[in-house]
Amino acid sequence: MLAITNAQKKFGSKKILDGISLTVDRGSIAVLLGGSGVGKSTLLRVLNNLETLDQGTITLDGEELDLKTINQTHTVGMVFQQFNLFEHLTIAENITLPLEKGLGKTKKEANAIAQRLLEKYELGDKGNCYSAQLSGGQKQRVAIARAVALKPKIMCLDEPTSALDPLLTTHVANTIKELAQEGYIVLIATHDTELLKKLPCTIYLMKDGKILESVSSAEFATNPESFPHLVQFVSGTI
What we know:
Number of domains: 2
Radius of gyration: 18 Å
CATH architecture of the largest domain: 3-Layer(aba) Sandwich
Distance between the termini: 32 Å
CATH topology of the largest domain: Rossmann fold
């Protein structure tokens, strides 16, 4: 289980994270929902050691998570909003490079893992392509495959459907559900309320660095009147 307790972060005088606390079990999905600037992406960046907390603790299975060693332990995987694929490398090389440099795999081992993942994500014939030749949905799947290749325990996805049409959003939602079914702890930062309808998840509605409301997607679907702030956000009135 991932447990974040009293996470606080300021940029200058502005509080970006203001006492955030939440837990996510293995095989579960947490959706950090809110508009721009509410702190949801910052929390993912903290988990990936791209930002540091001013205060708070993060534990994994009861032990404090040493975020300074994330790049060595590969405990946390990150899929960025803009995918961050290397445009000068082929799709296969985007996956094999971190395997060789990060995990010390041989070229043969890395190629075998990359091909297996490309086939899993229906990209088996795209290994020799470059990112410019792929659609947004295909780039998203490559980015997920690259993160999965390093076998993290936690998967973070920042705005995974921001550039996708409704059909591709459904495909990405299915991929995210598969990650949870495979035992990953999944955290998603998004403003896309349509994604909530496609995922079994816990929703954390954020505003001004705080969690306003939290509820399972199933409970919100059956009892929305108990969560007025979330209803307002979904309807576009907050």
